[in-house]
Design goal:
It is a single chain. By secondary structure, this protein is α+β, with helices and mostly antiparallel strands. It has 14 helices and seven strands. The chain has helices at about 15-40, 50-55, 80-85, 130-135, 155-170, 175-185, 190-200, 205-210, 215-225, 235-240, 245-255, 260-270, 275-280, 285-324, and strands at about 45, 70, 90, 110, 115-120, 140-145, 150. The strands form two sheets. Strands 1-2-5-4-3 form a five-stranded mixed beta sheet. The chain has a two-stranded antiparallel ribbon with strand order 6-7. Strand 4 and strand 5 form a beta hairpin. The protein is globular. The N and C termini lie far apart (about 50 Å).
Length: about 325
């Protein structure tokens, strides 16, 4: 069992770090509460980030703040997990469009300042969600969080997570890139070989390669592994922080029917009010703001279409070159 020494031993003396450490300690206590309640209902869970990353990639005295709890759960257990969270006083956050692959349908759960994110899979994994838990949980060790045992990812699965997280956030994701940089330096060859094998088993090689490719040392690691990660337009767009329109164009292209394509287009032109309130701070201010946001959206789309189309075409050309 890994032993977690606790955030307080890592805190620096500045007020900001002390405040962030207090928040992280509160998250640890909430995490233990949720994991114990799930265990009581016979539902396993794995802590993905927070203290799990801090303990394995950061030295005592170093600081990595976190404000929420990310849990990997068996995909089939999502309804039962939702029941447990509701019993604990959590409520699901408002939906925001169509859930991304790799997250639960009701992904964000809130209870005051407490925040839990549920994952039935990981973004970048193409395999069916029901196959993810048996593979990633196979060698999940235990560590102590707030004095209680909690399961975390093993070294190979953690290396995979670091690459997928970096690919999901792209070059602007400072924390995922720093975590990946540390993982490349601290997790050994065995872990990264296992990560590549897991990526292949879970149809996640394109995202694995895209994440590693964001850092020079990651690209070098990928070359040493001798892995051809392939190419996926949607993943490449996300890893390059492409404009939102580029992602929408790719989603429309992937729809198999004309009806599906038209539905995607209509949803982009006139999203639901819930989507608009998440998309625009103005829309969240009230009815008048919502109307103004709807009036602004066509103008925004016109502004975004040219850079989005260019980014999408570049990604499509890159895909075509790889297929030759």
């Amino acid at each position: 069992m890994l032993i977690y020494s606790g955030q307080m031993a890592r805190a620096a003396s500045t007020p900001l770090v002390i405040d962030e450490t207090a928040v992280s300690l509160a998250v640890d206590r909430m995490t233990v509460e949720v994991v114990r309640a799930l265990a009581g209902a016979g539902i396993p869970a794995i802590l993905l980030k927070g203290p799990a990353i801090l303990d394995q990639l950061y030295d005592p005295g170093e600081h990595r703040p976190y404000v929420d709890c990310d849990l990997l759960i068996p995909a089939a257990a999502e309804p039962a997990v939702a029941d447990v969270l509701r019993q604990l006083g959590f409520a699901p956050g408002a939906g925001f469009g169509v859930p991304d692959p790799g997250v639960a349908n009701e992904h964000e759960w809130h209870r005051g300042v407490d925040h839990v994110d549920l994952h039935g899979s990981l973004l970048g994994i193409g395999a069916p969600a029901e196959s993810v838990w048996p593979i990633l949980a196979a060698d999940a060790p235990w560590m102590r969080v707030a004095g209680q045992p909690v399961r975390v990812l093993g070294p190979g699965a953690l290396a995979l997570l670091l690459a997928l997280h970096a690919a999901a956030d792209g070059p602007s994701g400072e924390k995922p890139l720093e975590d990946l940089r540390r993982g490349l330096a601290r997790l050994g060859d065995t872990a990264w070989r296992e990560a590549a094998e897991l990526a292949q088993a879970l149809d996640a090689l394109p995202a694995f390669g895209a994440g590693l490719g964001l850092l020079p040392e990651g690209a070098q690691r990928l070359a040493r592994l001798g892995v051809d990660p392939g190419y996926d337009v949607a993943i490449a767009l996300r890893a390059r922080a492409a404009p939102p329109i580029a992602h929408s164009l790719e989603r429309i292209r992937r729809e198999r029917t004309l009806r599906g394509k038209l539905r995607r287009i209509a949803r982009g032109l006139a999203p639901t009010p819930t989507y608009m309130r998440r998309w625009s701070a103005l829309a969240a201010r009230g009815s008048a703001g919502l109307v103004l946001a709807y009036l602004w959206r066509p103008v925004w789309l016109v502004i975004q279409i040219a850079p989005g189309l260019r980014a999408w075409r570049r990604a499509r050309r890159a895909e075509a070159r790889r297929r030759r």
